[in-house]
Amino acid sequence: MSDYVLLFFGTVLVNNFVLVKFLGLCPFMGVSNKVETAVGMSFATTFVLTLTAALSYIVNTYLLMPLDLIYLQTLSFILVIAVVVQFTEMVMHKTSPTLYRLLGIFLPLITTNCAILGLALLNITENHDFVESIIYGFSAGIGFSLVLVLFSSIRERLASSDVPLPFKGASIAMITAGLMSLAFMGFTGLIK
Amino acid sequence: MLINIAIAIFTLGILGAIFGAILGYSSLRFKVKSDPIVEELDAILPQTQCGQCGYPGCKPYAQAIANGEDINKCPPGGDAVMRQLAERMGIEPKNLEGEEKPKLIAFIREDQCIGCTKCIQACPVDAIIGATRQMHTVITDECTGCALCVDPCPTDCIDMVPVVLTTQNWQWDLNLIPTKNSTER
Fold it and tell me: Looking at the partner chain, which of A75, A79, A93 has a beta carbon nearest the beta carbon of B32?
């Protein structure tokens, strides 16, 4: 049990997908202009990450390994991700049209979010079992959400603050992201 | 060797077929009902959400047109929008309801404005700027003349004034004048 808790906090804080592994930077920069959208994107991505972790584990263990088709991993994981994203999009269109409209193009773009393919492949290289895979996927999603919401809150404040002209817009966002990444390095000593 | 490739293709094919079936089922299960013509009509309407047609916004009016409502109830859109709507619906263009009024825009008498922001909240096109306890003013280019800001004003300091044609706001439409060069090309 404590292994799972360690894995969870380790992934959220120490090996954060965005700020330490530098995966999923596209939505991190793209959807962080408003907290509302960031929260929506976080939910969608966490959902997709968790579901993908489970499905890709099943596909890998019960289909690719027995048939000796390990070299098809990337291809079949992309297939899994595309299906999960499409499914999420349909459900979201039905249940929350406002969120669907807010997220717009970024929802289908979760498909190409490298955090998700990265998660599926990392699950295999780190030899996670089924439960560990799901926890890893979920905690990667929580880590992504945490960072995205924090970052979008900072950017909302930055929008109204007096930023020197050369730093306006994307450049101050990059600097902020870099400082956040530095701050998250402070968690390295937390869990060995 | 060949059999391996066959197995790989077969496996991926099966996987794709299963996922396709899941998606196919869920697209039926989570179908969102939306009338495509409503979306198109809504795209034609000017999106001022002013409510002068008697509906709470442009989307409801588009919905009503799709159900057979008259197409001539949109003053901000004017004659041009009405003709587009007529073409899309395949019906005869009608005259706009009521006589064509001169274009009005809101004007805030600034010495009487107390800065209550009520007109800002009422404006459907965000054409009024100002802050709490600060004087408000109208961005004339953005104002559609819907008069929704007049009623909420507690000091009645908003007037609807007709726009006087000047050289500043005259639509020159230089590109539309068929000069020799443009017709030859």
Answer: A93
pTM of the model: 0.60
Chain B partners within 8 Å of A97 (Cβ)? 32
Chain B partners within 8 Å of A72 (Cβ): 8, 11-12
DSSP H/E element including B26: helix B2-29
Q: Which residues of chain A does B28 touch, with a Cβ-Cβ cutoff of 8 Å? A: none
Residue B169 DSSP code: T
- List, in order of start, the domains of chain B with CATH numbers: 36-89 (1.10.15.40), 102-166 (3.30.70.20)
Q: How many residues does chain A have?
A: 192
d(CA B175, CA B172) in angstroms, rounded, equals 9
pLDDT digits (tens, 9 = 90+) for B82-133: 888 888 887 877 777 655 566 778 888 888 888 888 888 888 888 898 888 8
CA distance B48 to B60: 13
Least CB–CB distance from A87: residue in B15, B16, B23? B23
Residues 6+ apart with CB under 8 A from A165: none
Q: What is the pLDDT of residues A16-36, one digit of tens each?
A: 888 888 888 888 888 888 888
In a domain, A175, yes or no: no
Q: Which range marks the domain in which residue A147 is found?
A: 2-160
Flag whether residue B7 sits within 8 Å of chain A, measured between CB atoms: yes
Decide if B30 and A91 are in contact by the 8 Å CB cutoff.
Answer: yes
